[in-house]
Fold:
Amino acid sequence: MDQIPEIELGTVLFSIVEPKPGHEREFHRWYERDHFYAGCMIGRNYFSGRRWVATKPLKALRFPTDTPITPDISRGSYLVTYWILAGTYAETLRWSVDQVLQLHKQNRMQPARDNISTAFYRYDWGAFRDGDGVPPELALEHPYKGIAVTMIDRPAGIADANLSGWLKNDYLPRFMAGSSVAMTLCLRPQALPADAPAYVPRPSAEEHDRRYLLLSFLEAEPHEGWSTMFSGLDRDLTEAGLGKIIYAAPFIPTIPGTDKYVDEL
Structure:
């Protein structure tokens, strides 16, 4: 029998998608009732997953308007996050691509939608508000009221250690203390194989090297303190010369088994 791996977060599959107009309910039900499981959760190394949604009021909080992620920052109504066991990325990536290609052959990838941002990310480190709070492995199981997605690009000439150290040891401890942000996980993008579906965006190698994805888990509704917390990070990053936010967006969890929020996109 194979050695059973420790339950440790290693990689994240992150995907933001926009249903085509008039296909919102069809997309939501297909993803929730079929693809969430058939596309990922029945895979050997996936151990947690959660879907999130952005209503119109939440989309109004997004910034900056001019972002390389999408020509229209208001697009991207649904987010899904999956946790993958540490040390299994290569085999999980191969399984995931093969699984999606097979689902295409079975005509189970049909709902009309646009892929805004999909990638696998390596989990680098986490910042935690509480000494003995929720561990990252349980973040998608805990009933957080929202998640803040923040993408940062590091300027050329700035070392990774400088930005990561500033975020983890300086900014985030001050930023999170006494706030509704219980944890922030720092993720780094991984390259996709050549035979991954062509509709999945592929950032350049340079973007991969300079891009950071922060996932902040919120104990309060995202609009509470959004401007102070995340606009402040953008200002301080710029002043320190360590990077800039290229995409910041809040989401709330979907309610499985219901169509709640489908008419509020």
The chain has one domain: 9-264.
